[in-house]
Amino acid sequence: MNGYIYSPVNNVFFDEANKQVFAVRSGGATGVVVKGPDDKSSVAFRMDDRGEVKCIKFSIGNKILAVQRTLKSVDFINFIPDYPHTEFTQECKTKNASVLGFCWTSWNELVFITDQGIEFYQVLPDKRSLKQLKSQSINVNWYQFCPETAVLLLSTTVQGNVLQPFAFKSGTMSKMSKFEIELPVVPKPAKLSLSERDIAMATIYGQMFVMYLKHHSRTNSPTAEVVLYHLPREGVCKKTHVLKLNTTGKFALNIVDNLVVVHHQSSQTSLIFDIKLKEPDCAVNTHQPVLPARSIHPYRIPLAGPAVVPSQPPIPCQLYSSSWSVFQPDIIISASEGYLWYLQVKLPPTVNLLQDKGKLMDFLLRRRECKMVILSVCSQILQGGEKGRLPIVATVFDKLNQVYKEYLEAEQSYTAVVLLFNICDFIIPYYFTYCIYCYINTHLNQ
Predict the structure, then answer these.
(1) InterPro entries recorded for this chain (predicted)?
(2) d(C-alpha 438, C-alpha 254), whole Å
(3) How many angstroms from the chain centroid is the CA of residue 267?
(4) What's the predicted TM-score (pTM) here?
(5) In the chain, N or C: fewer CB atoms in 10 Å?
(6) pLDDT tens digits, residue range 326-340?
(7) Closest CA to 68 of 29, 97, 30, 27
(8) Residue 405: which of 394, 416, 415, 397 has the closest Cα?
(9) Is the CATH number 2.130.10.10 carried by domain 1-140?
(10) Contact, 96 vs 62, CB < 8 A?
C-alpha cells in the first residue's frame, strides 16, 4: 500500500493521490526526482540520508513532504515558500505500535496507519509540529486508501476479511459500517487469508465499490471472479455484483471510463465489464465480459542515449509483464522500463466486436468521446442491406431518443431552477423592504 515499486537502481515509489512517481537515490542524498502528470507536480531536490526510505509522499499541491524511514515515526519537510526548509518529526503515539504507512487527506492533514489503529493529524507548517485530531484503536493487518473519496479501508481480525472503513473530510474522521468479505474457504486454524493484493477500491458510475478478486478453490467454482461490494457513505456495505472471469491465473484490476478492466497475465489479454449493461434483477447480479478478451495495444519504447543509431527501431514493450505494477483507477507502471501508462479504451473496434446493436448502443452511450462512434453505427445500419434491418434501426434510434429526452428534461429542470432563483433574487429584496415599511408605518401610527 506504500506504493513501492522494485527497481535495481533507485528506490521507486508511486503516490496514487497525486499520481507522482518518486525516484530516491542514496536515501535522497544524491537526489530525489518526482515526476507527475504535469510540470507543476514534477520537482527535483535533495534531502539528508537518514536511513532507508519506506514511504514518501507530497501533500496536495506539493506543499509538505512526508517521509517514513522507521516503524515509529514520519519526517516532514516544508516546501511552502518563506517557510523553514528543515525536517521535523512526528512519532506515533500508540505505545509499542508500528507504522504501516500514512495517507494525506488534505494539504495539511494526514492519517498514520499502525498495526494497532489509526492516528489523524493536522500539520502545522509554521510551527513545524503536528496536532492530533483523533485516533482509533483497532487491530490492522493492512490498509487501502481511495484518494478520490478520502475513504480508508482497514483489514481487521485474524483472517483479515472483516474490513472497517473510515471517511475523512475537512478535519473530521467518521467511522463507517464495517463489513465482511466472503472467503471461498475458511482455514483451520484461522490465519490471514485475505491479501491487500486481492482488494481494490474504486468509484464506478459515481458510487464507491470495494472489489474483491476471488480466486478459485478446490471446493467451489474452478474459475476466478471479481466480487463488487457497494460501499455507501451511510448505511450497510452489500455485495451487489459478481464478474465472471471464466479462467484461472494471476489477475490485475483497472477502472477506465466506468468499466472494470481485468488483466490476465498468462493469456496476455484483458476482459471488460460494464455493471450498467445489465438491468438488475436480484440483490447480487452476475456479469459476463462485454467483449471478447483482447490484448492491450502494443507499445514500442523509443531508444535514447549517445549510443543510439538513428535507423535503429524502437524496442517493443513487454506486455503483461510480471514486473508491472497496477494502480487505481487506470495506471500501469513498468519500473524496469521506466514508464507510466494511463490505460484507455478504444471505442471504434467495439462496433464489430459487439454484434447486438441495442447492447452496443447501451455500451457506447455511457462512454466518454462516444459521439463519432455512435454516428458510425447509425451510418452502418442505415446503409446496410441485411434482412430485418428495420427493427435494428428502430431499437438504435429509440435509445438515442430516450437519451435526448432525458437531456431535455434535465435542461428544463435546470432552467426552472435558475428561473426560480432569479425570481427570488428580484422579489426578496422588495419583500423585505415592504416588511420594513409596514413595520415602521405601524409603529408611527401608534
Answers:
(1) RMC1, RMC1_N
(2) 65
(3) 25
(4) 0.84
(5) C
(6) 999 999 988 777 788
(7) 27
(8) 397
(9) yes
(10) no
pLDDT of residue 430: 46
pLDDT digits (tens, 9 = 90+) for 121-164: 999 999 999 999 999 999 999 999 999 999 999 999 999 999 99
Banded model confidence at residue 219, pLDDT cuts 50, 70, 90 = very low
Compute the half-sphere exposure of residue 114: CA atoms within 13 Å on the CB side of its CA: 24
Query: How far is residue 243's CA from residue 224's CA, in Å, rounded to a whole number?
Result: 9
**pLDDT classification of 417: cutoffs 50, 70, 90:** low
Strand partners, 202: 209
| C-alpha–C-alpha distance, residues 36 and 243, integer Å | 33
Domain limits, the chain: 1-140, 350-445
Highest mean pLDDT among 120-124, 363-367, 376-380: 120-124
